[in-house]
Design a protein that fits this description.
Oligomer: heterodimer
Largest sheet of chain A: 7 strands, parallel
Number of domains of chain B: 1
Number of helices of chain B: 8
Shape of chain A: globular
Order of helices and strands of chain A: EEHHHHEHHEHHHHEHEHEHEHE
Helix content of chain A: 25-40%
Radius of gyration of chain A: 22 Å
Number of helices of chain A: 14
Number of strands of chain B: 5
Strand content of chain A: 5-15%
Strand order of the largest sheet of chain A: 3-4-5-6-7-8-9
Radius of gyration of chain B: 22 Å
Largest interface: A-B, 85 and 70 residues
Number of strands of chain A: 9
Shape of chain B: globular
Strand content of chain B: 5-15%
Chain lengths: 322, 216
Amino acid sequence: MANSDLTCPEAGLERPAGSTTLDSLANELILLILSNFCLHCREGPRETPHAYFPATGQRRHEPSWYALDISALHSMSLVSRRFSSLAHEILYHEFAPGYGDSWYSMEFEWYWRLEPFLRTVASNPDRAALVKRVHVNINLLCCVTEYLGERTEMVLRDAARARGIDVADFVGPFRALQQPVYPDRYRPGADELLGMLLACLPQLKSLSLSWGAPLCGVPASALRIAGVSSLPLETLDITCCDEMTGARLDGILELASSTIRNLYLEICDGHGLRLLTRHGPFPNLRNLCIANDRHSGSELTPFLSRCVNLETFSYESGGSRA
Amino acid sequence: MFFFFFSFFFLPRQRLISGGIVSVDDGFLLSDAVAHLIRNKETLQKLHLAIPLSRQQTTTRNSRHLIELLANLNSFPVLRHLLLSSELIYNDNSAAEAADDDRFLTRFLPPSLASLQLVVADEMGTGVLPCLAAGLLHLAQAVSWGQFPKLKCISCINTKQRLDGYGLDVMFASAGVHFGYDCWPSTYGRARRRVGSRAGSSSRSTTLASSDDEHL
């Protein structure tokens, strides 16, 4: 065999004859390797409830493990056109910054994450159709609010234009919802971006809302204005559904109740359960997981009475982890 | 601001885990939720009930629903995965009956069962632990006699090897069932972790990011 066959000219390194390079692997194999860096691919259709996602030992002064995974996929997308298309196919499966215990990393920069992601999926329907899973950490939303400015409003305006709607019509229901909270100084912010994001993702199967998200709520009427009559969600994972936060979920529950198959609740009190009961029945609900519950059983009874054909019932009362 | 939110997230969970602040609520067993759960028995494949009961709570107030649930479990035709707090089976109310009857555990398990997990409370009475061990030994026998043909895995959670002296692992191994210990609550799902190292990268991707990938 000629020497040229054994040498990688760019790197000046020799490699053994007959060795396999990443570039020589079939697309299926490369996708299999890359899927290792994707939560959605690793977990498959039956994802672990956020309440039970295993702790990784994330430390405050170390990079977020989630960001490292995404960074690996992104780096791969920069290698060549072929790898770019393969990596993007997986990279856009999910948008879940801060998932699990990765939010604990102080090195993760929350600023300017939601806006560019919305801009991408709003202007690129092919990429939007790849997104199956979104996790909303409260820090993501608070960062939008903290640095609210022209750029944020421009992203929202462009996304509305891409959907063929007037942004003023879309934010109207948000303004009405937030009026009691911000009577004098309404500006479209985090919830509006989240609402538009949900409207832009036609294949979104899983939505996970961490403590306090959304900030005030995503009105169903705004989503309808954006052309969404129902959300395609199969999994809804809610951390904290109580008197203070439960009402913020009204719009999402209203548009997703007919499709939800997996409902995962962590720290849900009687108010949260009454809210869920009001939005039920969930005709396709098969898997119900209640972790760290904070209600009396009597409030669970009306909800459970409307559940038929459950395949999983998981109930952990509030003191189980003591 | 971010410190506030980190604290906001972190502290409540710590309060939960550290225990003692959150009261244990046995409301589930006091309500009619059990009856509605039983209505789903034809389709239920996975049932987890992690309800720690203190000594005061294992009273006749909730025993009616508990008995109703246990009496019905063996008629759940497709139930494959069962996780129960062992106090639901072995508590002060049932201890006398369980002590006299090694088949107490075996009686209520459905034949379709593939995995059984029992959460054992740290404070479980010394008198109750031998009952649990005896129940498990009888279960191992039952499996070796051909009952529970699908049963492949049994784990005791939080027992800290307190059942080691009973020879359960040998008995179950001879019946073709894996017996081991596990920790709560990491047993719920087996989310696959990424293979490989986490070292050597940044939290924000390179400056080569195209505008499409700016969120990365």
